[in-house]
Amino acid sequence: ETAVFQTPNYHVTQVGNEVSFNCKQTLGHDTMYWYKQDSKKLLKIMFSYNNKQLIVNETVPRRFSPQSSDKAHLNLRIKSVEPEDSAVYLCASSRDRGGSDYTFGSGTRLLVI
Amino acid sequence: GDSVTQTEGQVALSEEDFLTIHCNYSASGYPTLFWYVQYPGEGPQLLFRASRDKEKGSSRGFEATYDKGTTSFHLRKASVQESDSAVYYCALRSNTGYQNFYFGKGTSLTVIP
Question: What average pLDDT does range A34-47 have in this prediction?
């Protein structure tokens, strides 16, 4: 099956902890993304990664960092979570930087208590 | 800069009602326009796209027509069903310069049986 796979589906953690979310795509795409989806369903792009070039949304706090081993994987680490980080984190990929065949994973829901 | 505007944040309809979700865009040239649908617990998935003036996209009974004159790509369905309850995103991919991808704020549709 070719798709974008995210793990875990759901994660509950306490303020100050470190968390890491995994994303893998088997579509052969060149570009991957992380989005944050808030409670109002607003999609905010956090990072895009293409050919080892990382583009960071300047509004993203420094405690967030993407980690990539190859073009099929883009993980997300949050160093010290805060309550406002509670959201759904969506990974996506596209065939190229132009966003062709944009495909999303099913998301990781994070709850910070 | 390029942008997408969805005016309805939440829509509640009864089964068999007519649906319209408004989408207007701002971009130079001829961007590619998309509608995505996100069902509960899933990531957004492509409903359809259009890339030329007057082109109609359609899928699963939903349709939208690219209108460069009014810079619109309104989503319509003649008779909604409870299973259509989801979040709908209008999106744009600019086709000039660096091809960025932009999502609207999303419209949450609830269909009451």
Answer: 94
